[in-house]
Amino acid sequence: MTAQQSPVDGDAPDSGEQRTMNYGKENVAVYRTYATPLEDVRTIPESSFDGRDNVLFGLDVRVQVEGEEFLPSFSEGDNTKVVATDSMKNFILHHAGEYDGATLEGFLEFVGLAFLDTYSQMSAVEVSADEIRFDELPVPEDDGDGYEASDLVFRVSDNESGYGSISLTRDDGTAVITDQTSGVTGLELVKVKGSSFTGYVQDEYTTLPEREDRTLYISLDIFWSYDDPEDALGEDPEQYVPSEQVRDIAHVVFDEVDSNSIQDLIYQIGLRVLERYPQLASVRFEANNRTWLSVRDDLDGDASVLREPPAPTGFQQFSMDRGDLDEQ
Predict the structure, then answer these.
(1) Do residues 299 and 258 touch, judged by C-beta distance below 8 A?
(2) How does DSSP classify residue 273?
(3) For 283-302, what is the mean pLDDT?
(4) For residue 51, is pLDDT > 50?
(5) I want to staple 161 with a disulfide (CB 3.0 to 4.6 A). Which of 70, 131, 183, 197 is the partner?
(6) Where does a domain end: 127, 161, 181?
(7) Is residue 14 very low, low, confident or very high in pLDDT (cuts 50, 70, 90)?
(8) CATH number of 99's domain
(9) Which DSSP category does 236 fall into?
(10) 187-202: per-residue pLDDT in tens?
(11) Domain finish residue from 181, 201, 216
């Protein structure tokens, strides 16, 4: 269920369906310097990532709140219970200074709990965010013998970013996590050879030629959920799945596998993710095919000239759980 479709308790008038009623604030950009470092994460063979300094901790946050007490604001123009979305923005910014954890998901739960603790008219809250990443920049070492990463100057990254979403609701007066998603989005990967696309339906509508070996360019979003949502918070770093490691798994599998389709490729990535992280319940993908088209393939060796594909482009969506891994 998307954020825009989340229902509140209670039926809509003259309808058997639950009413959709929520509001909130999005695109709240928040930056924290010298947040708690993420340390002691479990390493995997596909990745060198073992933690992050969090000298710059940046998030683009969205918060959505629900509650039956907000109905008069819709039906009667009565704002008595309404928390202004500008106040929500300020609330998020303030609590970025109070958070002493090290992960995106941990902050989302922290601020979500704070909303429910502060405003009794809120019965449920969903907080999500895209990570705003920064790249380390090399500077000369003090002795002039080589380079090291600057701990003061960073570059805003144009690459993939982490994602997280935490939904909380009141249960007998206690806030509990009802839904959790983590992810890495905006991966753009190109494999110059070692991918094919053959054996698909050939009929009167088919104009695409089969390709035994092609340059494959995809964009990819990967999302995952834990068996125990508490593991997403990073309080036990050994159980936390860093988005950087999942990104690296995608790179490695793309390099290793001679796939016959994007569907085949993402399935193999999913198997590897589930194999590496037994604490995960499921993984899902949203992929887009941006494969370049050949202009010249008459050059020496494997050289070719390619161009951007025209619109429209194909996409793939797929989800997997531990049952897929058990079948292997």
Answers:
(1) no
(2) H
(3) 93
(4) yes
(5) 131
(6) 181
(7) low
(8) 3.10.270.10
(9) S
(10) 999 999 999 999 999 9
(11) 181
- pLDDT grade, residue 16 (50/70/90)? low
215 is catalytic: no
Reading the block at residue 123, the tokens are 């019965």
Choice among 20, 36, 43, 85 that is catalytic: 85
DSSP 238: G
Candidate list 25, 181, 191, 215, residue with the active-site label = 25
Strand pairing partners for 294?
306
| pLDDT of 10 over the 60 cut | no
Give the angle subtended at the CA of 79 by the CAs of 77 and 84, to the nearest 5°.
125
Say if residue 60 is in the same domain as residue 74.
Answer: yes
- Our answer to whether residue 36 is catalytic in this structure is no
Domain span holding position 312? 185-326
Q: Is the pLDDT of residue 69 over 80?
A: yes
Same domain, 83 and 149: yes
Residues 208 and 310 in one domain: yes
CA distance 40 to 51: 7
- Burial pattern 290-311, b for ≥16 Cβ within 10 A else e, equals bbbeeeeeeeeeeebebeeeee
CB 245 within 8 A of CB 253: no
- Do 122 and 81 lie in one domain? The reply is yes
